[in-house]
Amino acid sequence: MTAVSVLRVTLRPYALRLTAPLATAHGCVGHRHGWVLRIDDEAACGFGDAAPWSGFASSFEQVASDLATLVQTGSILAARVERPEDATRVARRARTPEAQHAVELALLDLLAQKRGLTVAALLHGRAATSASLHRLQIGRAQHDAQVHTIKLKVAAGSLADDERRVAALRARVGSTVSLRLDAGGGWSEAQAASAIERLARYGVSLIE
Question: pTM above the 0.85 mark?
Fold first, then answer.
């Protein structure tokens, strides 16, 4: 069976400026910071991404320390991966979920390449012939017939302000586009219940 045996692990940090600042319940985000994790075996390389969001899950410092430890101690060197489940097992050697994601994705990428497959085909046996597009809405919505779902950040201001934004977005995109709202932990349980009742009229399919 084709397998991956890890020979080298390297990191490349990045900082990407968003095209427009993103207002969240935890403040305004203008950049996305993270690391590209590269894992090499004797014939190919796979890539994974670790990009923590400020205010959510692990801190930037925790992920940085976790990834640095993985590279400096060589804790995943010589790890052998024959099946997707092995990639998950090796990834658990990292402490933070963001670093685990990067390791698992890089190993799956590498294993799929070795077998001449996409990651989707490796995991599910057959790649999908089409995919629904999901877009995060920051500025004014533009009509795009290929976009099936639009997600809007809420809870950075008042519920009345959120309702105005949701109503305006629904009016612009029509009734066929699915709307999802992301409160990002900005509502209490009582506030969430009130928001759900108030925003349900706009055909919101999901609130995170």
Answer: no
